[in-house]
Amino acid sequence: MTRANCSVFLTLSRPVVPPGHASSRLNRGVPIHPRQPGRLVWRRIDDFSGLRLSTADRLSWRMLPLSRELGFSDMNKVYPDAVSALKDVVKDGMTVMSGGFGLCGIPESLIDALVELGVKDLTVVSNNAGVDGKGLGRLLDTRQIKKMISSYVGENKTFAQQYLAGELEIEFNPQGTLAERIRAGGAGIPAFFTKTGAGTVISEGKEVKEFSGEKYIMERGITADLSIVHAWKGDAAGNLVYRKTARNFNPMMATASKMTVAEVEHLVPVGELDPDHIHTPAIFVKRIIAVDPGRKHIEQRTVRKRA
């Protein structure tokens, strides 16, 4: 981190007057909340001795990236449980992205919190809809989901029953198209063209263009109000590491919503994760909780018959 992209914020218990800033907001007596950044001071750290600070003033400083100059303040991202992490965020009718593939890598504790909080008329973006009584299947049992944007839903009888009864809307997507629509949404790409589904019912009602003699259909990027994801390991800043197959849809969903809440099996101090191993940078994660790492389910148990 260089001096060019860093700044220093002062957190003060009351206004102070940095020398040479006669026209500053501090000199006009603007109050400073103790937990909010104070006056931005363009100085080297060893110049702090020039500030007129009494012993009653609490001064905390740190080198911060350039984004802090735009007004982003420190926040505690770690919450004690899933309900507290979601209760002031969720609302009826919102769009929620839920990571996972089958029952692998699903944010089960956060899904259970949605059930407990009772939000309804949800549009849920997920590769599949869990199974009966597990994962998103619990939200289907309580009829909190109005619409599913999915790829595969064949393992959930409740899903099929509600769909056939006209109680649940479905927007089916080829699996790779769903993944790319989510990735595009996170990357700020409003739409893209793909050959997948061209000439089939998938292309009905969609724009079709020809490239190099082949037909392509236009697909829209997807964004959401909330993403809930599951990671193997994360730190208090919100950096996430996924493990093996549980990586699946989680990383792109973490980038494609207004707020991402993550549950992690192992919550570690900031600095413990190898930067080269981080899959989702902390900037995408607003809240994080620690969950029981032993809570795992098998979607299809396949064993060899006994002799």
Structural class by helix and strand composition: alpha/beta
Report the radius of gyration as a whole number of Å.
Answer: 24 Å
**Helix content bin:** 10-25%
The CATH homologous superfamily of the largest domain is called Glutaconate Coenzyme A-transferase
Residue runs with pLDDT of under 50 for 5 or more positions = 1-74
**Terminal residue distance:** 64 Å
Helix and strand pattern: EEEHEHEHEHEHEEEEEHEE
Q: Architecture of the largest domain, CATH level 2?
A: 3-Layer(aba) Sandwich
Alpha plus pi helix count:
6
Q: List the domain count as a whole number.
A: 2
Number of strands: 14
Question: What quaternary form is this?
Answer: single chain
CATH topology of the largest domain: Glutaconate Coenzyme A-transferase
Name of the level-1 CATH class of the largest domain? Alpha Beta
Largest sheet: 8 strands, mixed
Mean pLDDT: 79
**Looking at the structure, what is the overall shape?**
globular
Beta-strand content estimate:
15-25%
